[in-house]
Amino acid sequence: MKLRKGLRHLGIVSLVMLAITAILLATGCGEKLLSDAEYIQRAKEHQDKGDLIAASIELKNALRVNPDHPEVRWLLGKIYVELGHGAAAEKELQRAVELGVARDGIAIPLGQAYLLQKKHAQLIADIQPLTTLTPDANAHINAMRSDAYLGLGNQKEAEAALQEAMQLSARSKEVRVAYARYAVAKRQIDEARKWLEEVLADAPEYAPAWKLRGDLDRWQLKLKDAEQSYTKAIDNSHNNDNERLMRAMVRIGLKDYEGAEKDLKILVKVAPKHPGVNYAQGLINFQQEKYREAQLAFEKSVALDKNYAPALYYLGSTHFAQRQHEQAEQYLSQYLTMAPRSTAAAKMLGVIYLRNKNLSKAESVLLPVLTRQPDDVVVLNLLANIALAQGNAEKSIAYLNKVAAINPDQALSRARLGFGLLVEGEDDRAINELETSIELQPDLSQADTMLVMSFMKTRKYDQALEAAERYRAKQPDSAEPYNLLGLISIARKNEAEAVRNFTAAVQKAPGHVAASVNLANIALKGKRPDEARSRLQEALKHNPDNTYLAYRLARLEADSGNLQLAVEMLKKAVAKEPTSPEPVMELARLYLESGQPEEALAIVQKIQAQSPNQPDVLAVVGEAEMNLGQIPRAMPALRKLVEIQPNAQNYYLLARAHVAARDYAAAQRAVDQSLKIQADYLPARVGQVHVLTLLKKTAQASARFKQLQTDFPNQQEILVLESWLATYNQQPEAAISALRKAFQLKPTRRVVIELAEAQIRAGDAVAAIATLNNWLKDHQDDMLISLKVAHVYMTLNRDDEARAAYEKVVALAPNFVPALNNLAWLLRTQDLPRALSYAERNYELAPKSPVVVDTLAMLMLEKGSHAEAVRLLQTVNAMVTPASPTYQYHLALALSKSGDKPAAISLLDEIFKKKAQFPEEQQAKDLRQQLNR
Length: 933
Hints:
The protein is about 80% helix and about 0% strand. It is mainly α. Among the domains are: about 35-255, Serine Threonine Protein Phosphatase 5, Tetratricopeptide repeat (Alpha Horseshoe), CATH 1.25.40; about 275-300 and about 310-320, no CATH class; about 365-445, Serine Threonine Protein Phosphatase 5, Tetratricopeptide repeat, CATH 1.25.40.10; about 835-930, Alpha Horseshoe (Serine Threonine Protein Phosphatase 5, Tetratricopeptide repeat), CATH 1.25.40. The chain is elongated.
């Protein structure tokens, strides 16, 4: 009991101390506690001195003494209005009414509070003239009602309210400024200025008039006047954050960054959460081309208000300036929905869509601009480029004709029209336009270049040479004329002279892209790949960000068998331009070529998400899924592809998918459509023979094949087809013979692989390995052939030789996923730790490849990590559609080893219900019997 009393006594003491502390905190340590009237008096004194913050603090102290004091609530509400705190003002004024303050006492400040919050409809409903108010006060109320009607877009009611206000008090400054706002809404700027000058003559310290005049000055780009007007507004108002922000913006426009920074320094303290503050800081950085700093500032602004339109626009523009087109598209699209008439945003989006080959989107975003501004030369030129990319040269020329009509004396317009006519095939008109452009502007190098190309297109080589020589005489230090002279030499089959001219171009401009590529092409034609490589490497050294050079060098390495080196080179190009589709698509195609379809799919995912109907993306997706055996997933992409781009190549690709699905009738329809579009498309003609053979239409297939032999004598592709037909008809020696002829005609990697496979089918694996190794004698770094050798050894169960062969491939290409996968598998019985290290490394490289994950899981099973194996195999089975019996069996095996016998049995039974054949079928049956015991 004593303890409980002690506790109770302690509680009372604590409560007393807390009360004393609260009083001290409220009044200041050692300060006398004042009455509410005294706090009100002190607040009014602060208010008279212009210190509204101190006044509001005193009024809050008064409310602590008497929270139901109506005058305090009323005074505090009015001060909040002056400070620009609309919501707080509304709350205090409504409370004042509840406590007995008359409606006429709060009508004007409450209306102002509504306007601060843009509660226009509520103002019209709640704030109306009162008979108890003076004419001046009612005029002020009508002026506010006019502003509210304007905020709702109702100019008619706004005018009626103003007329009523003017009848009540024609000299009211509030009414006259409201009239100025009404004139602005009607785009009568001179009328608005007249009203403002009248007000300022009578009331030179009236801040709202200065603020509106500043806005007008800013809109009319009278920036120096705007700065002065905003300064007057700031000096005569307590609620001046917006005016200060506007002055900062004007100073940015005047390039007075120091003055703008001073304004922003104050705003950061008083309005840190206003999105305009960070926006203005971003604008300072943007105008000084500090794009990274600008981006960060605009991002902060958008984080504070995701719908702050100016920041969205400039955030998109900043990404555009940094060539980060994916992000630019995101923000500019969002901005354009808010400001659909923004020409600048539409133009940037048009450029982005055109660059990403999303031609329909580019056109749709630019055509509305052209409707509003039919003479916008930039938009006309962009639409001309879009039409040209769509293959509609006639439409392109129509746009370019309009540009030339708008600027008949502008050489560049004439040159562009000349180029469009050249593409359309109107060579004489093209030459005429280009010659006119050169007359208008002799130093316009684009016109000289296009004129030479026009003459070359029409095989007027003498005139092309004369034009190129004139160009060289005008610009003797330029590399361009020498490159053109080199092209003319090539056309005239004078290779030595071409080399001299291209070399001169490179000497004039080291790393000149076109001349370097032309020299590399000549070297490749002469079977000098090392020289070609050297030319391209030197050019890339001078142009490290040129993705075309990177692609050409990568293609050279790929053609030389250095596929993984080619992949690594293109990876670097993609890293430099992650949003540019060209290097990404080239890398995807290289992955397909090197047998890495999972990687191809992974790398095009981002582009596919942005442009799901882009034809080259659909082609890669379709082919990759086909190579993975996922025909049901390939078909939608390929059907969409032929719908969007119905050309011979795409229908042939669709035919291949139908063959893989064993739907030969559909394959025939697709290949026939391909040939209907382009009768001489060789792959489709070869494919037609394949399909007719598979349909058992032997006579038709034979007739088509004989026609191919007639049309393409000594063509390697026809000999490869002959080999396939022989294999189909179970004539292995004839198949080998045809491939030997194909190899003699033109030794290529593809024919070597086909020949080795034919020899294996004929039962002569030794000959197959010899064929592959003979190729490797002259092409030691050919990774694909080395990989094929390893595969052959693995197929023959010659594991030691297969391991050695895969080791060689991994030495050539340390990150080549298929080789790492098979090497890990072959090492599992001899060196499990090393096998696991390869498998884990491979998993890091290709975590979404079912084959890779399956290999790692099976090695984990060997190691005894049953739970991890189950987890990985569950992931594998979730990846694959339709279900793979092999992967399901592997999971059942892992489940049985982990002790989950019921789950293993259930999964095995599911496999057997499907009656699908698979390599491990007998092992699966054995496991099911074991689990029954």
